[in-house]
Amino acid sequence: MGVLNTTPDSFSDGGRFLAPAAALAQGLRMLDEGAHIVDVGGESTRPGAEPVPEEEELRRVLPVVEALARRDVPISVDTMKPGVMARALAAGACLINDVNALAAPGALEVVGASDCAVVLMHCKGTPQTMQADPVYADVVAEVRQFLRQRLDLVLAAGVGKDRVLLDPGFGFGKTTEHNLRLLRGFSSLSSLDRPLLAGLSRKSLLGKITGLAVSDRVVASATAAVLAVQHGASVVRVHDVAATRDALAVLAAVGSNQ
Ligand code: HH2
């Protein structure tokens, strides 16, 4: 999954793909480099980010979704807002990626009324508050329990099991130690019996480990993607598609232990 942020303030690619033409070109480039799906986002969820009004998020996201849909690109939309979900699905998106796990009133209904796939992600708190000293007794167990509850809720609302992916939400209300524990324990999430998504690309835990600036975290990100897939991830959400493709090709040739 290639990341395409049409925002001025995303932590890694903010401001680069604000113009729809630049966003379309980047989406097509990522596909060319080996992405299977393009994840379009119009609201940053980096720690401390301010919420974006729905009209503004639609203004950023919809032209890009429409342009990619005209090229038959498989499109995911990274949003917490039911109104954005509905418009993006109508414009051709096939996957809703919700870092809020469909918690907003009406979100479950929008997904239920369509036949799209959905990513349910764990986040402790909101982007405004999530990095203010998050505490867990057992981060892997708590994340697994949360994902189990959200999955059950979504299934009870009539969404087919085969439409749901789960994501532990690296960096969302977690310290570096929590993120590392989650990666070590990632394979235990496979007991939830759903494909797992991992988003580690360029995140601050990689900066903490390497001391590198966001734009210099390509090797660290590709390594993290390999580790995530080795630990059971079916989808990796990445900014650096070509580097990740090459790293995963080596893993595939050797064979993962899954
Ligand atoms: N991470 C980010 C955004 N959306 N979605 C899922 N499912 N999993 C993730 O780990 C995830 C996500 C944050 O990364 P990015 O989109 O690059 O930054 P920003 O939120 O600043 O736009």
Structural overview:
The chain has 9 helices and 8 strands. It is of the alpha/beta class and 258 residues long. The protein has a 6-stranded parallel β-sheet. A two-stranded parallel ribbon has the order 7-8. The mean pLDDT is 95. It binds 6-hydroxymethylpterin-diphosphate. Residues 3, 5, 7, 10-12, 41, 44-46, 78, 97, 99, 119, 121, 167, 169-170, 197, 199, 237 line the site of 6-hydroxymethylpterin-diphosphate.
Layout: helices, strands, pairs:
Blueprint: E1 2-5, H1 20-33, E2 38-41, H2 54-70, E3 75-78, H3 82-90, E4 95-98, H4 107-112, E5 117-121, H5 139-156, E6 164-167, H6 176-184, E7 196-198, H7 204-210, H8 218-230, E8 233-236, H9 241-254
Helix pairs in contact: 1-2, 2-3, 8-9
The structure holds 6-hydroxymethylpterin-diphosphate.
6-hydroxymethylpterin-diphosphate binds at residues 3, 5, 7, 10-12, 41, 44-46, 78, 97, 99, 119, 121, 167, 169-170, 197, 199, 237.
